[in-house]
Amino acid sequence: MQNKNAIDAALMQTVDGGNTPMLELDVMTVDEQNAWQKYLSLMAHAGYLSEEVLKEIAQKEEGFTLAMTRNLLTANTHAAKSEEVYAMLDERNNPLPAYMRAQIEAGMKDQSPKEYLEMLSAWNKGKATDAVKTMSHLVAHDEEQDPLEVDMLINALSLSADKTMDYKLVEIYDAIGLRNLGDALMSVIGNDPELSELDEERHERILDHRQTVYDWENAGMSLDKLGENELQYLNEYAYGDDMAAAKARSLLRLNEALVYEEPIVQPEELQKSLLRNAKKPRIDKDSPQLSTFPNPALDHITVEYHILEEYAEAVLNIMDANGRLIETIRITGSQDQKLIQLPSIADGSYQAVLLVDGRAYSSSEFLVSKR
Question: Which residue from 209, 279, 220 is spatially nearest to 245, judged by alpha carbons?
């Protein structure tokens, strides 16, 4: 329980830096002047952005370049599992090219840090819940309960945020002879204003079944030797997925009179895939093989390349006006956009040179002006 609380606390602190509304607002207010700084700020939360923030990024067209949008979504691989993120991408006036969509969808095969923590939290919750259920069963069916064990179980159930555990606590109260406390808790559950209509129906079934079994016991009936009328009542209650149905089936098994059969759930013919089976992008042979923007650049430059032939190795060199090498970036694929940060480059004229298998393939000039 302690471990789960620590994991949940970590999730609250790391997802969106602990402030989802603020990060959503940051994305909404992105423009051409602040886009780069906002992009870097969001990348600092890579792997931990919420679906709410990712949806805002997917639909944001002012300020963020296509490469920025792609990078933010690929850095948070759980975006690939979100139908709503895809819906936002589909509605864009300036859509991401097919190869960028394919890069995002590749995240289906990966697990983000956020997903990992969520998995641990769910696993620990399930583990703790299973342990509590096992202890509840043992206490409820053991005539010689350990008082310390009972106290620990009651404390654990009382602190649980899982509402189904309240019914387990009622069961424990009934098992140890504290029916008045069970009655009081059933009343509290029934008066919960957050109960849905379905929850209210289930509560009434549990309430009725609990009272009926209590009446049988008060009438001196042995629960393992019930009569025909009682067994018929239980068989009517046995159909369902709530606690009343489970209790009814347990008593029927005890009397070797269970006629209920578990429903067979047929698997869906094909589970819907989020992958869009993106087609291999077609490259316009008339488009420039290398382009740079914005021009002039301030704090970053986007370099877009199209390589129209097979190659073994390709690199992108950034050079100043004197031919001095500033940066080398290895590239892959036939088409992409690369974001290059320019924090320490002085004002002046520069050139991006694309080398394919050791020869100059294409180049593009750009200016840097930080004034």
Answer: 209
Q: Distance of alpha carbon 47 from its chain centroid, rounded?
A: 11
Q: How far apart are CA 146 and CA 151, in angstroms?
A: 9
What is the spatial distance between Cα 47 and Cα 354, in angstroms, rounded to a whole number? 31
Q: Is the pTM of this model over 0.85?
A: no
Q: Does domain 290-368 have CATH number 3.40.50.720?
A: no
- Whole-angstrom Cα distance, residue 189 to residue 47? 39
Name which of 200, 283, 270, 280 is nearest 242 in CA terms: 200
Report the C-alpha gap between 371 and 359 in whole angstroms. Answer: 35
Query: In the numeric block, which tokens belong to residue 76?
Result: 């948070």
Residue 29 DSSP class: T
Closest CA to 76 of 98, 45, 101, 102: 45
- The domain segmentation of the chain, as residue ranges, is 2-110, 126-254, 290-368
| Each residue's pLDDT tens digit, 62-86 | 999 999 999 999 999 999 989 999 9
Q: Name 354's bridge partners.
A: 316, 362
CA 317 vs CA 305, 331, 364: distances in Å:
12, 10, 11
61's tokens: 């067209």
pLDDT digits over 229-261, tens only?
888 888 888 877 677 887 788 788 777 776 645
